[in-house]
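note to self: dont lose this again. the chain is below, predicted strucutre after it. 165 aa total, dont forget to put it in the shared folder this time
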Amino acid sequence: MEPSWSQAVGLFDKVRTLKNAITGGGAKVSLSAGRCERGQEFEISILVQVEDNDLDIDRVYVEIEGRESIEIPDVDVTYESDGDTDRVSETVTAEHQTSSQAITVAGEQTLAAGQAYDFTVRATLPADSLPAYRGKHCQHHYFVKAGIACFGNDPDTGWIELDVC
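---
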């Protein structure tokens, strides 16, 4: 007995659902945020476009991070190995997370296949947090990421720089 067309389609749907769980391809997530100021509330808008199958999610979330980074070119660095000494000129870099916050925007639910969902959340960068700046060798920026927590790899926006004044 040969498999029916509906069985083949059902198998294909299961394979696609598995692929989406592994790759985070069950939905596309985008966000927009206007200019923000430390100590002042600002709005983040999130758009979730669900792909071909319903998507059971645990939550919609936003993460915000402050990051300071430094890059110093032409630093003389000495390496010692087995009694040999090598001196080279390198660029030295370092990064430090200065602040972090996670916000749950919406809770557990099922998002229907082929539908778009808009979520909005208000957030505040602490008034005493570091300002955003870009110096010659050092800089400090704020980044935001929106995502949906679900089985497999969470679909998200990736980190996007906030415009902080």
